User: Fold this.
Amino acid sequence: MVTIKCFTNGGFGENTYVLSDDSKSCIIIDPGCYSKVEQESLKNYIEEHGLKVEKIVNTHCHIDHVLGNYFAKKTFKAPIYIPENEQEVLRAVPTYAPMWGFPDYQAEEPDFLIKRKDKTLSFGDTKLEVLYVPGHSPGHVALYHAEQKFCINGDVLFRMSIGRTDLPGGNHEQLLSSIAEVMFELPNDTKVYCGHGEPTSIEFEKKNNPFCRVES
Ligand SMILES: [Zn+2]
Assistant:
């Protein structure tokens, strides 16, 4: 049984997810903690639940999703995984971090790349399916758990919205294809956990999302 805990960080309202299972292993997805308070709350949760962090994973490498990479790696001694096509996006972060109000951002190199041929990512007794959903950023991945029917989808689908595509490497048409061909192929009752805002479901977005509604 996978437990999902969400932390919301900073002015972007970025969501970090900690997924843990009965083995007490966990992964941290998109650690966006920048302030001391945000970092402490993540650390306290991990410690209080006696979790061992196996991996730190970025769905993509925009600044709000990687602000806490350095902290998480140093604190939990776990390797960082990023999608292979996100290396350039990650390398660009230090150049704009100070302008965006994050002068103390510390860059951290990834330890492993999630490659296109990688179908799964595991931790503890849990296997997550890796979905390739570029568009919001060039190498964006989502993580899907078929048994419990949930998907951690970063900035692909939001409740009633979709990820922006005006940042370098963004592509609106590609994002719409990722949604139609990958996300909307998931079961309707899949719960979707977003990089910003409330969770949603595939069925709700098919019916209500003004950007990618499926007319029936
Ligand atoms: Zn993003």
Notes: The radius of gyration is 16 Å. The chain has six helices and 14 strands. The first helix runs from residue 36 to 48. The mean pLDDT is 97.
